[in-house]
Amino acid sequence: MKLEITVLAIIALFAALFIYQSSTGVHEWAGADDQSEKVISELTGGTYEPWSRPVWEPPSGEIESLLFALQAAIGSLIIGYFLGYYRGAMRKKGAPMEGEGEARSDA
Amino acid sequence: MHIMEGFLPHPWWEIWFALSLPVLAWGVYKMNKMVKENREILPLLAVSGAFVFVLSSLKMPSVTGSCSHPTGTGMGAILFGPWITAVLSAIVLIYQALFLAHGGLTTLGANIFSMGIAGPLIGYLIFKLANRSGRNMYLCVFLAAMFADWTTYVVTSMQLALAFPAASGGIAASFQAFMAVFAITQVPLAVVEGAVTALMFKYIVQLRGDVLVRLKVANDSTIKLLREASS
Fold first, then answer.
1. Which among B29, B72, B134, B184 would be 20 to 30 A from B65, CA to CA?
2. Do A51 and B13 meet the contact criterion of CB atoms below 8 Å apart?
3. Could you say which of B101, B181, B192 has the minimum Cβ distance to residue A11?
4. Is residue B143 one of the residues assigned to a domain?
5. Cβ of B7 and A37 within 8 Å?
6. Facing residue for A97 by CB, picked from B46, B104, B231
7. What is the CATH number of the domain that holds B111?
8. Which domain holds residue B88?
9. What is the reported pTM?
10. pLDDT in tens, B170-206
11. ipTM exceeding 0.90?
C-alpha cells in the first residue's frame, strides 16, 4: 500500500499545482506542439511554410477528443482485461496475494 | 512531443527516417522472435503497448501554462528493451498521425526516433544501472520511466533546433527556445509518468513475477522479496 499512497500523493500534488496555477493567472493551456509552431515562425521570421498537410484532420474539437478518448479506452481495456485475467487465474490457483483476504471471506 | 506534419524540412525528415527505420525493422524481428520462443509474454507485450496508448492520449496541464502528454514508453523499455518499444511507439504514432492530425507521416521518422528509440533507450539503461546498484526496484522503474519521458522531449527539441537554427546564436539558441517549450513543460508530467509506471510495475510483479524472471528483468529472490513486502 505504501507505493499506492506515494503515487496518489504525487498525483494530488500535480493536481494542486494545476489548481493553484489556474487560480493565479490567465493561461492558455495550449498544446506544447502548437507553441513550438510559434517558436518556429519566430526563428524563421514567419517564412516557414509546412510543406505537407495531414492526410485527414478531425473536423472538430469534439471529434478529436472522441478519438483521443477512444485511444485511451482501447488501451485501458487491454490493460484491465489481462491484469484481471491474471488476477482471476491466480486466485484459482490459490496463490497468496494482496487483496486475497476479502475474497476468502466471501467464498 | 510530436513534430507536426510538414514541419521538418528536407533533409531532416529523411535523415530521421533513415535512422529510425532500421531500428524499427530490428525491433519487429526481435519481437517476432521473442513471441515465437515464448508465447507467454504476449499479454505483457499487449499491456505495454496499451500503456503507451493510454498515457500518450492524456494531454495534461503543466507549470508553464501549457499542455503536453506523457509517453508511456518506460514500461515497454524495462520489460522488453528499447528495440521492441520502438515498434509499440510506432503503432501509436501512426494512429495519431492518421486519425488525430497529431504528429504526421512525414515527421514519423523523427517522432519514432524521439519517442520510440531515444527515450526508451535511456530509460532502459537507467533501469539496468539503477537496478544493479541494488536500489528498491520500484524506485528504479520510477527513474527509468521518468527519464524515458523527459529524454523524448529533449530529443524533440534537438531535432527542431537542428532543422531551424536561429539567425543569431544558431542551433544552441534555438535548442534553448525549444527546450523552454517542451522540456520544462514536461518535468512534472515525467514525474507523474514515473510514479504511475512504478505502480503498474508493482501489479505485474504480483501477477506475473515469473514472466519478469524469464525476461531477465528481475531474479527470483527479488520478486519473492517484493511480493512479501506488499502482502
1. B72
2. no
3. B192
4. yes
5. yes
6. B231
7. 1.10.1760.20
8. 12-230
9. 0.93
10. 999 999 999 999 999 999 999 999 999 999 999 999 9
11. yes
